[in-house]
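To: structure desk
From: M.T.
Subject: fold request, one chain
Message: Could you run this one when you get a chance? Sequence is below, nothing fancy, just the single chain.
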Amino acid sequence: MAEEIINGNLIKNIFNIKKISIIGVNGMASNFKIITSQSKGSLHIDLIGEFDGFSAIELIEILKDNCANVKNIFIDTSSLFLIHPVALDIFQKECLSNNSFQDLLFIGKYGNIMEPQTSESFWY
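Reply: Done. Structure tokens follow.
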């Protein structure tokens, strides 16, 4: 059984979660929100604030709920001011393991950091 500790909370089987609603859960960065808009077959996702582990799970759920319904997904990272390494790891691992997430388009100042990489990365 996979276990991960995020913000002091034990989460089991984090990469096999089928459906979760985390809006308002204690532990999620209170200064984070996601704004989505849809037009002409494209979904635009704006990430705002501090991207932590719970924020990553929230973004993953939004992607799972919408990938089949749109042609293009743009994720704008311009309004992020902090990306936690554990959040980046959770998000990138899910993207690499989910074929529906292969064509995500990342824009903004942290787009290159958020985009999943196939090689192992490390933090200093």
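Reply (cont.): Residues 53-66 form the longest helix (14 residues). Let me know if you need anything else for the meeting.
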